[in-house]
Structure formats: structure tokens, C-alpha cells
Amino acid sequence: MTAATNRRVLLRARPVGEPKATDFEIVDAPMPTPGEGEILCRTLWLSLDPYMRGRMSERKSYTASVELGQPMVGGTVSEVTTSRHPDFATGDIVLGYGGWQTYHVARAGGTPGPFGPLKLDPKVAPVSTALGVLGMPGMTAYVGLLDLGQPKAGETVVVSAAAGAVGSIVGQLAKIKGCRAVGVAGSQSKCDYVVTELGFDACVSYRSPDLATALKDTCPRGIDVYFDNVGGDVLRAVLGLVNPFARIPLCGLISQYNATEMPPGPNLAPFLFNRITLRGFIVSDHVDRLPSFLADMAGWVRGGRIKYREDVVEGLDQAPRAFIGLLRGENFGKMLVKMG
Q1: Cβ-count burial 244-267 (b if 16+ within 10 Å, e if not)
Q2: Domains of the chain
Q3: Which of helix, strand or coil describes residue 300?
Q4: Is 68 exposed, middle or buried (0-12, 13-18, 19+ CB in 10 A)?
Q5: Nearest 5 degrees, angle CA 67-CA 46-CA 21?
Q6: Half-sphere exposure at residue 105, Cβ-oriented, CA atoms within 13 angstroms
Q7: Which of 122, 161, 291, 297 is 20 to 30 A from 22 via CA?
Q8: Which pLDDT value is given to residue 1?
Q9: Cβ-contact 212, 220 below 8 angstroms
Q10: Strands 38-47, 277-280: pairing kind
């Protein structure tokens, strides 16, 4: 690759089941040129997130699918290398949505989305955190738990994918709000991490032979809030333990993202008997909460009340492998590609 080319990871084929390396294609393309009011950005950090699996499919969703032959989508932190907009200068660091490529052109000015294009101050925090604890995953945890879960002191909050970028923040927010925080994760090492390092009260592995019993033992007063990132067997186990008027913010369904057929739905009887509130949400619908989120989360991070972990791979060529591992639960914390 030369300085005059743009390395890109394209969607070559729509996966059937779990994505494979052959579903992606790595190519070198001509360097894009910014027009009037645009900026050329060189990617420093690329975010990998489970929602990207849905964008690889033609299945109807809340946003458009990636077209075959086009770069995979994704949040990015980049350096401005050429600016044709008065509000941005060469060398500025920006949060955007450049996708799986080394360079992209962004339309600057106007009304930015919740995660870009926004100018970042590297003195405030490591810029990679704009893709994690101080970015979309952190805000997802913040809005989902505080606005939709509405935890009250003394209640029990359970979160699945507890060692991930969203789940790890949910449990810590629950503790800040005076709740009992219980995680569900995929390995003993992850469970140990969220308890000993992040301050969760307990954590169980979803691989337990009897998940329902393991959860019951760690939630003796039942479950008041379940922050769901996975659906499937974990949701079924939780529904047998929820208290009346429990709240379930539905953030993700990782357990079925690679499914070729939709699994049967849960038994709805607990929803009726216990008057459960189940609310699916997409964080981009809550742009108005961004200022409060940034103020609160930045303060908690600076004060040591919120801790975070990043799982970093080096180089764009490693993105497909890392993404496939993310869907298998192989990541430990926020999954990032360090580009330069």
C-alpha cells in the first residue's frame, strides 16, 4: 500500500450463519478527495461492535444493510489530513463513522449525529474512549439502564454479556445507583474480572449446567431489572426469576445474530403475571441525552467510579478475524482496531 491509496475491507458475500473470512475482501482503492465543506480523515481507531452482523444481512432492520462490494460500517476516531471546512483544521482529531477503511471523507458542519463528526480533545481522555466508555457503548449502557431500566436503590440488576463494552458499564452504573449488580458472562475469567475489578456483587457463566439455579442463588430477592444483550437461554432463565413490575431494556440479541432460522419466542406468561415492561431501544434515538451522558460518565471515569477495558488488535487486515471472534465472545472489553 502506498501513501496514495486507501485500504478498505469490503463486504464480499452475505454470511450464512457465522461470518467467514471469505465474506470479506481487503482491497486498495484510490485516495478519496474532499469537496467543498468536507474533510479527509485518516483512521486511527476503528470500533468493532455486534450490531455490524445485522448490517451484513438483507434482513429488515432499523437501518440499511451494507451493500455488497462496499466497506463495512463502523465508528472511527480519525485525524483530519485535509480540510475544506473552516471549523476543522489539519491535525484535528474527530469522531465519525468512517467504516472499515484507512481514509474516508466526511461532510463537516451542519447538525452532527450523536457520535460524529465531532471534534475531540485528546487532553480530556484517550481518544479511543470515544468509541467505548465515552462513546456509543457507554451511552447505550447509560440510557438503557438509567432511562429505561430506572433502577432504584436496593434492587437487583442483572446484565448479560457483563464483561463486554456495554454490559461492564451497566453493572458499574447499577452499583453507583445503590443496586445489587449481577453479571452473566461466558467464562470464569470474565466473571472474576467483573466481580474483583469492576465491583459487581456476583457473576455466573451462561455455560453453567443449570443457569436458572445459578442465577437464583445469586439473586435471592429476585430480579428487578434485566439489561439484555443476548436474548436466548439467558432471557428464558431470567424470566423465571423476575419480580413484579420488573423492567427489561432490550439492547441486543447476540445469541441469534448468526442464526439461519429464528428461534421460538419466550413464554409470555411471566410478562403478564409480573406486569413486566420490555423495551427495545436504539441509542441513536436518544441524541438529546448526549450532554448529560458525557458530563456524568466523564466525571465517573475521572473519579475512578467507572473502569473500562479495551481489547485491541493491530492493523485493518485483522478486523475480519477480530470481528468473527467478537461474535463468538472471544473479546474481553471493548473491541478496537488500532490503525496508526
Answers
A1: eebbbbbbbbbbebbeeeeeeeee
A2: 5-131+308-338 (3.90.180.10), 136-284 (3.40.50.720)
A3: helix
A4: middle
A5: 55
A6: 12
A7: 161
A8: 42
A9: no
A10: unpaired
**pTM score of the predicted model:** 0.91
Distance in angstroms (rounded) separating the CA atoms of residues 338 and 19: 22
Cα distance between the two ends of the chain: 14
Query: Are the C-beta atoms of 139 and 170 separated by less than 8 Å?
Result: no
Determine the number of helices (DSSP H) and then strands (DSSP E) in the chain.
9, 15
CA–CA gap between residue 74 and residue 323 (Å, rounded): 11
Q: Which residue has the cell 429505561?
A: 148
CA distance 225 to 279: 12
The SS3 call for residue 222 is coil
pLDDT in the model for residue 283: 93
Separation between Cα atoms, residue 194 and residue 145, nearest integer Å: 17
Task: Please give the grid coordinates belonging to residue 335.
Answer: 473491541
CA dist., res. 267 & res. 29, Å (int): 50
Closest among 108, 337, 62, 309 to 192, alpha carbons compared: 309
Place of cell 445485522: 54
445459578: which residue's cell?
214
Q: What gap in Å lies between CA 212 and CA 117, rounded to an integer? A: 44
